[in-house]
Structure formats: C-alpha cells, structure tokens
C-alpha cells in the first residue's frame, strides 16, 4: 500500500463505518462485508454513493457489485481516481 | 471487455425442439366482465392502443399517434422516442424470425417460442419485449443479480428458470451485455445475443460469422409483417414468483396484458398530460407494467435504474419532480427512504403538488410508513390522496385492487390477537396496546374480481373474516410454466379462481391484506423462500447433521429478513461467530439476499415433525437461540 493510498483507505473505512453505525477502528479492511449483519445491499449502495460524492467520481456498478472488503472498495476508488487523472 | 456478442453456440440452432409443451390451462376462468375499450376515455390514445389486440400492435398504435413520445433512461445515459423504439423492435423482430432476409437466415425464432430478455433499465429491454412479441414469441424477462459477487450462483439460479421456460435464446441488453459475457457458459444449449447486434446495422455488419445469430437485421431491411398472433397466445412469462429451487413462470397472454393495462390506466385515469417515473427494475411486474401503462397512455416516461434511487433518494425525487413527474410506483420501503433522505422538503425547495399518484405496492404496506411519508411531505404540497396503497401481483398482470381516486389512505386498527387467533377483524381504538394497523388497498380494478376463500382452498368467507385472497378476471394468468409441466398443486380453486396465497379480509368491498399463507420473505419487492435458504445453509461445515430451519422474520427495525436457525456442537465463541458468518455468506450467495439473521442452537434443539421434517413455524415460536 503506497503512502498516497492510505488516505483513501482511511476515508473509505470511515464512510463504511458510518453507514454501518460503528466506528472506523471496528472495521478490518480485509473483513468480508457479506459476513456483517446489517450490511445489506441498500447500505452497500449508500456507502458507494457517499464515496462517489466524497471523491466526485462515478464507480462502475459492475466494479461495485464485485467488491467484498473495504480494501477492495479502496482499490476500485483508486483505479477510478487514476482513470480520472489520466483522462 | 470484448465486443463480440455474448453467447454460447450450440451445434445447431434447432437441435432441440423449441416448442416445449404448450401451457396447459387447467382451468377455464369464469368469464369476467368484458373489458370495453371505452372504459378508458373514448377516442384517447390509450383506448385505441388497448383495442389493438396484441402488445406489439398496441405499442405501434401509440407510436403512430405519438412518434415523438420521449422515453428517457437517465441511468443508462440513453433516451429515444417511442417511434424509434417501435422501429428498432420491428428490425429486431425481422432479425429474430429471418423475415428481413427472406426467411433464409435469422435467429430462428418461430411463433410461440419463448425468448429470454436480460437487460438493465435501458431501451434495449423494451425493444426486446416489443420485438419478441412482434415475432410471435413470448418474452421472458429474467431477473438481474442483486450483486455480481456471485455470478456462478446467480447463473445457476437463472439456468433453472431458463430450462423451465424452454428458452434457447436470451436477448441481452444495456450494460448487462458485458456482465453476461462472464456467465454465458452456465447455460447449456442457450444462445445469448445482444439486442444491439440484431438492431444496429453497423454492429450487424461486424458480427462474426461463426457462433452468432446471423446478422439478419442488415441495414434498413424491411421489417416485414408482424407474425399474426391470437390475443390468447402467450406474450410474456414472468419468473418473479416461485422459489429458485422450483421456479415457476406466470404465463400472460396478450389479452391478459391488455386487460391489465386497461385496469391500471382506468384505475387512476392516466392521461397524456401525465409524466411517469419508474426506477423499479423492468424485469419486475410493477416496473414493467407501470412503464407499459404509461407508454400505452401516450405519456412521457422516465426510467431510472434501481441503484439510482437507492443511492440517492433525494436526488431522485428532485429529478422526478423537475421533469414534471406525476405518477410513480414503488414499494413501501422506498417511501421510508424518501422521508429519511428529505426530512424538510419545503425548506429544500421541493414542490410535490404535481405528484398525483404515488403507488405503494409490491410489498406489504405499512401504515406507519405511509403516515411518516405524509407527515414529511404534505407541507411541501404532497396531496394525501396521491398516496395509493395498492395490491397486485404478477399473476394478475399487475393490479388487483386500487383505492378510489381522490381518497387519502385508509387504515383500520384491529385487535391483533383476535386477528391472529380467530382470523376475525374487530376494530379497536388506534394506539391501544392490542391494535394492529391494516392498510386499505381499495377495491378490485376493472374486470377483476376478488373474494376471500377458506385457507384450505374451499368455501367463501364473509366480511371481516380472514382467509385466502382469491382473484379472477381477464388480467389473471391461466397457468404457470413449471419444471414438470404440471400446474403447481392448489394454484387454482375448483371453480377456477387463482389462489394468491396471501391472507386478507374484505369489508364493504375494500380489501385489507393481513399476511401471507405461504412461507415467504419479501425484501424490496422480491420474493425469497426459506427452503432455498435451508438448502444453502445446511452444508456449511459446523452445522450439526445438516440441521437448520429458515423462516420469514422481522428485524428490530421492522424490515423483513430471512432468519436461519442452525444446530451446532460448537461452543467456542469465535468458532460460533465464524460459523454464523459462513452461513450468512452461503445463503447470501445462493439467494442473492443480504437481509439474513443467523442464530445458532444446540444439537437437537430444532422441533421436528413425526416424519423428521423440521417445522419452520414451530421453530420460530419455540426456539430460543442460545
């Protein structure tokens, strides 16, 4: 994980924690979100919407639906940011 | 992503007989009142379209009058006119039947075939629907996955429905086409072909020669005449009800559909001055027939993706109102989301006075949700009478009962215990400890009849007695497609009424839905079955002797969930937590449902019948999770 990527992970973790009504330190970046009670598809979509607003990006539904952990969400965001920067 | 058509080639397109057994209509429906076309304003576009006899002819009738009717799909980044949609459908029909190339080529679709339609909310969905209808076949809208994390599981579920319907060609559209590339191999002997490849001259010219449907669309090839079909032929097969283990398709004829659209258009007096907004999936009955009712009326339609609404309910509402939206259907949960997302609509500058019909259906209507929505939005101009709790189902095309226009929602408060124990509704004061609220969902729509039958399928009950809701009428299906070819046991009464499996009561002609007879969970308008959850959970390592029971439950917040009780010998807390998580993952993967509550119990804790079958309802009552 590069140093520039850390803030994305931190931000994403905070957003996930907020949506799940917990604290960031309770969210393991490698936790499979499917195992979390209450992390239903609506909450996941809401998380994505918050992340999109935070970074002013639009994530591909297909990418979004494939992720299972906070770290994977972070990867998707970083790819989108990189693509935006390259465009 | 490559651009070749997503499909699985089979040795010969006609190697398997296409015409699977015709739908047997086991019953002759009691003839309902005929549907006079003039039930809708005489001379209107809707009246002409509804009299056209078939789905595609109805669309063509509207297109002839309103070729420029705008159909917007903001989430798909697409918009087109109805004239363009019908023209594309004509080209598709020709490509499907080979008519565009003199019959020498084509996708090999013949009359009475069943053709799958797999598309997100994009123009391709409606093009495919109309094109398949015009080709004389029945369109089978196929559900999209709730998530793509488990495409193999999704594809396996889909494959069962595809097999039951005898589908050998699936038209994929919109952005779904790309996803379909990834599971096309799951369908044995089924071709997946992109709508675009059959409707776009440029694309058609680049279709590889092997393994794809011949590019019959070929430029401006004449569409040829529509295949003449009787209104009593199947036009659509809906797979939204039935468990994934034993999928069943609701067969709707052209006559069913036109009667169903008539009921909707007549029931809320849709006019060309309305503007419809839909974000429900088009593969869902409410999304599909809500959209078609709008188009048949000749009113502009905007169709978003479900994700667009769920991600940003406030943004959706602003967009809907900004477009002049006046009609929108959605399930109960969505009204909660709107009230939560926009707590102060007037301060936000929203004016809801133009939203004249807010259908609330597809899942149980909660009086508390309705009250909260009205409290939040009436200060911003929302008329209470616009909130319309309705009752409907795929078996009825869509609508069964609507409240009378201009009436604010009606709730009854009845004694909860008496209702549950004796099946009798006795009014009690609102707010009393034993009060249970029931939302009035109105009276039967045009050409629909509703009665309350005994729960064993015999007899008819009187007012205020809880029994099974049974329906009959022109829009009601004549039967199901199943894997055995036989009708599901007890689907119809002896005198031909459809048994809905829902429980309710009538009072003075108004229907109140009280529950469900069948064990089923409805989450955001989608039905899930405990049996399917048990199948997925019982093989998870750590489950004692594959013993588990699933049942419909409610979360502390009141939302429906699938509860799973599993026996285990594990005692270590960490191991038990891991087992619960593993069960959750397994069930989510199998059902595409995340609303799952897992509880573990000790060995032999689950109640069983004398034959060794687990009793779901008894387990729910008796089992205290340890």
Descriptive account of the structure:
The complex is a heterodimer of chains A (87) and B (626). Chain A is 60% helix and 0% strand. Chain A is built from 4 helices and no strands. The longest helix of chain A is centred in the last third of the chain and has 17 residues, at 70-86. Chain B has 3 domains: 46-70 and 82-267, 3-Layer(aba) Sandwich (Rossmann fold); 312-480 and 490-516, Rossmann fold; 524-622, 2-Layer Sandwich (GMP Synthetase, Chain A, domain 3), CATH 3.30.300.30. Chain B has a 4-stranded mixed sheet. A 4-stranded parallel sheet of chain B has the order 4-3-5-6. The relative contact order of chain B is 0.10. The chains are: A mainly alpha (87), B alpha/beta (626). The interface between A and B is medium-sized, with 20 and 26 residues.
Instruction: Label the structural class of chain A.
Output: mainly alpha
Question: Which value, in Å, is the CA radius of gyration of chain A?
Answer: 12 Å
- Oligomer status: heterodimer
* First-last Cα distance of chain B: 49 Å
Q: Give the number of DSSP strands of chain B.
A: 28
Strand percentage of chain B, roughly?
Answer: 15-25%
Low-confidence runs of at least 5 consecutive residues of chain B = 1-38, 202-222
Unreliable residue stretches of chain A: none
The number of helical runs of chain A is: 4
- H/E series of chain A, N to C? HHHH
Which term fits the overall shape of chain A?
globular
